[in-house]
Design goal:
By secondary structure, this protein is α/β, with parallel strands linked by helices. Helix content is 50%, strand content 7%. The chain has a six-stranded parallel sheet, with helices on both faces.
Length: 366
């Protein structure tokens, strides 16, 4: 884990706080610090951190640093250090001669600060009161309370560092697909295919990596997509040596509208003896909300001997689903390695296909 802290050069208390974090995590993370925008940009490019931790608010350099980090797709943790409390906002409003309520203050700096806060992966506040006032702002729902050992005896320096580190880990364990390499994604598709078929011969001849695999991200992604059973079975089928990770209790952030995927039969009902009707119901459900679990279940169903391709083609045409199903076949070829011999219609890779692909990729996007 690599963390880059950025904080105002003039604030000695924040500098002391960052120093405590750096010292307390020296054995568990690579830590760098910057207190000027120039130094920050240099270290950002040299270090390529996993997380940028911004300390404080309202200074243009802090917001600019956050924007630069976002552009490089680095995740941001922000600690306001009490600078978003109502009395601070009220003071800024009075300085501007604004008579509006603190949460209605509109101005360039406020809009910029709100954007920075809203796009942070997590906000660390130092107490219950600060948490409550920040919640009322409604700028970011991902709030963590970690007391500051400099201003309270309720927490030790070691405990503070440990709790902040857990926030960092939670950030990195969220939307892991976004952080997975092409190599890891390619291996996941092979594992899924093996998990569906239960036979390694189905992926014979498909090259896939066996070294330098980020098993933590693969298994967390499987957990969040509710496909861990398929992935575990695929790993066993391929005789791969994955890390033993219990992903059920790993903390992560999710989009506000996230719902853990449920098996298709719980959404569309059980199979009633008509294969074509069942496949049609599956495809229509995927059209409304595509997710990886349902792609796997559709692949399993399409590989059954009972599928009547001609009948399914006719029904898809009748229901005006042919175009969507063609795009879906392309997605299946990528995500579950479905062979063309099991596709009832030819795959299509166009703008609509890219939209389906994007929808699946964004399922866990914060």
């Amino acid at each position: 884990m690599k963390i880059l802290h950025f904080y105002p050069k003039s604030d000695q208390m924040i500098a002391q706080y960052v120093g405590i974090l750096a010292e307390g995590m020296r054995h568990s993370a690579e830590i760098q610090r910057a207190d000027t925008l120039g130094a920050f940009k240099t270290k950002l490019n040299e270090m390529r951190p996993d997380i940028v931790h911004i300390h404080g608010c309202w200074q243009f350099a802090l917001n600019q640093a956050a924007a630069v980090a976002r552009k490089q797709e680095v995740r941001i943790v922000l600690s306001p250090h009490g600078q978003l409390t109502p009395w601070i906002l009220k003071e800024k409003a009075s300085i501007k001669g604004d008579t509006q309520s603190p949460t209605d203050v509109i101005g360039r700096s406020e809009l910029l600060q709100r954007r920075t806060v809203g796009k942070a992966f997590a906000i660390i506040v130092s107490g219950k009161m600060e948490c409550q006032s920040f919640q009322r702002l409604g700028w970011n729902p991902r709030i963590e309370v970690v007391h500051n050992s400099i201003i309270t005896n309720s927490i030790t320096q070691q405990e503070m560092c440990s709790q902040v580190f857990k926030v960092y880990q939670k950030v990195l364990d969220s939307n892991v697909l976004e952080q997975m390499s092409d190599k890891d994604e390619g291996l996941l598709a092979v594992i899924i295919k093996a998990g569906i078929t239960g036979d390694s011969r189905w992926v014979a001849g498909i090259p896939y990596p066996t070294e330098d695999i980020d098993w933590r991200r693969i298994l967390i992604y499987a957990e969040h997509q509710n496909i861990r059973n398929y992935v575990d079975y695929g790993i066993a089928t391929l005789n791969l040596h994955a890390d033993a990770i219990d992903t059920r209790h790993i903390a992560a952030y999710f989009p506000e509208k996230y719902k853990r995927p449920q098996p298709l039969k719980e959404l569309i009902g059980e199979y009633m003896g008509d294969e074509t009707d069942y496949l049609l119901r599956m495809i229509k459900q995927i059209q409304s909300a595509p997710c990886l679990l349902h792609l796997i279940e559709l692949t399993r169903e399409l590989m059954r001997d009972s599928v009547d391709d001609d009948k399914l083609q006719a029904v898809l045409e009748e229901k005006h689903l042919t175009v969507f199903a063609s795009r879906l076949m392309q997605i299946l070829s990528e995500q579950t390695l479905l062979d063309e011999g099991y596709m009832p219609i030819e795959p299509v890779n166009d703008r609509g296909t890219r939209q389906i692909r994007k929808s699946i990729a964004n399922h866990l996007k914060i």
